[in-house]
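Suppose a colleague, Dr. K., hands you the sequence of a protein chain of 289 amino acids and asks what its three-dimensional shape might be. Before reaching for any lab equipment, you can write down a predicted structure in token form. Begin with the sequence itself:
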Amino acid sequence: MLYHLMRASQLQPIDAEQNPEPCGLGGVRFNLMKINGETRIVGLIGYPIGHTLSPAMHNRAFEYLDLNYVYLPFPVKESNLKEALRALPALGMVGVNVTLPYKERVLEYLDEVSEEVELTHAVNTILVKDSRLIGYNTDGKGFVTSLRKGVEIDPRGKKVVIIGAGGAGRAVSIGLAKEGVEKITLTDIIFNKAQDIASHITKNVPKVEVAAVRKEGLGKEVREADVLINATPLGMKPEDPLPIDSKLLHPNLLIYDLIYNPPKTKLLSEAEGIGAKTLNGVGMLLYQG
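The predicted structure, expressed as tokens, is then:
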């Protein structure tokens, strides 16, 4: 969202990592005295979204750039999704970010999509233009940038295992394929979703080896992998099980959990315990913003 706003304003992004702490009412930082009849509204649609850091990050950036915008969280239940999206132009909103569980479900309500969305079949940003809803996906670019800047890893030539074949997993998979990884292995409890992504990558990025495997067949793939990515929601709640058997983890892995709240999931704690490099989803959130 912020990327598209700054492109329109010819502004440069700031390093939000310098001031990452949430502040203000409910984690939403803005000066109430600056809210007026010309304030533009953007936000986040998902459910649930009580964990999100997006309002704090975006409102801090708007304040720094002196933009008359405010970013708000909108917890939308699935039964209200269609009506919520239809209301965006009527309310004069600039657009919204889209998070779980709607990155794929919003597609049927959009008027136009970007090339990235055509490839990934998932949306994380909707821009309102002339009362039309235009879908974008910056997940893949945000993930790759966070790899390079967060742990200084170039994905080219790497072997990657991705757990989870939803909207985020699909975007990350295709982003990595376009960057030239050697091999991508996908798994999901709904196996045909992993197969669908594998087929899609084979068709569109044929130079990359890609395979869909069932969870019980991950052992060999993880042992040979350079990077393991959790693209499932497992880890957001304290009672969640690990997305993978911890016995399969090894010190030569970079273990990347797309979850950013909590900042250290059970998976990342297990990874640190064996000396593996770890990364959470804060960097991806920042660089996709």
